[in-house]
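Hypothesis: this fold can be encoded by more than one sequence.
Test: take the structure tokens below, design a sequence, compare later.
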């Protein structure tokens, strides 16, 4: 087992697959062999998450998966999670809540913090909870794809993650939007019905609108707020 004492000890391992390959299953096999239970998948249960869960279940059917439950998600997202739990009963899926309830957040920061200061809201309801969920973990998995947005074009399979001081494994970097949907339909996977109503990227309800541009599938997130990422993927 690898143990990191400090951030200086975190080294990016040599990965045996060329970055030009799409081999997500190979990446996942390598990652679970390498990190075992010190590997966590932080899943948003969007369409990439549905693909990754199916791939992960083929490699580690009792893998640990966390969903950052901001208490602000669409009801369709919670229903999707329940269906996934039933389809993969051995996976250890749990919901990580922020320490502040919505009422406590309103008391301390005012109503609808996501409108006034979305970065603070994401920090309280996503970043700190993920940090807590990753306590003791050496690596985490994310469904980032290079095609998703200009900010994600340089993501690699294995990344040093300065924000969380560990390794971020991104098996889907070379998958296109079509690859994702081809996989979902070929395997008849259940997914969030909001995808069929114009939402390619689904986050918290107050910060997610339909996206009308194929150039940036995340354009419906934080629309009009000058923000494109929740902060989980910034180093
Ligand atoms: Fe808050 Fe919006 Fe971030 Fe959700 S996506 S945590 S509502 S700012």
């Amino acid at each position: 087992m690898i143990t990191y004492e400090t951030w200086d000890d975190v080294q990016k391992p040599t990965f045996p697959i060329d970055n030009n390959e799409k081999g997500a299953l190979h990446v996942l096999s390598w990652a679970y062999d390498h990190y075992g239970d010190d590997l966590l998948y932080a899943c948003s249960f969007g369409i990439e998450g549905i693909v990754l869960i199916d791939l992960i279940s083929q490699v580690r059917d009792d893998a640990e998966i966390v969903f950052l439950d901001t208490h602000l998600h669409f009801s369709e997202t919670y229903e999707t999670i329940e269906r996934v739990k039933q389809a993969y009963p051995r996976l250890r899926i749990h919901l990580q809540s922020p320490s502040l309830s919505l009422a406590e957040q309103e008391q301390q920061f005012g109503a609808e913090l996501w409108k006034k200061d979305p970065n603070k809201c994401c920090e309280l309801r996503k970043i700190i909870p993920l940090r807590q969920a990753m306590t003791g973990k050496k690596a985490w998995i994310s469904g980032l794809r290079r095609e998703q947005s200009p900010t994600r074009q340089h993501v690699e399979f294995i990344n040093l993650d300065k924000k969380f001081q560990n390794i971020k494994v991104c098996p889907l970097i070379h998958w296109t939007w079509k690859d994702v949907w081809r996989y979902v339909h070929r395997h008849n996977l259940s997914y969030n019905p909001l995808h069929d109503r114009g939402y390619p990227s689904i986050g918290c309800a107050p910060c997610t609108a339909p996206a009308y541009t194929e150039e940036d599938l995340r354009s419906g997130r934080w629309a009009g707020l000058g923000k494109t990422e929740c902060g989980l993927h910034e180093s």
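The mean pLDDT is 88. The two ends are 25 Å apart (CA to CA).
Hypothesis status: open.
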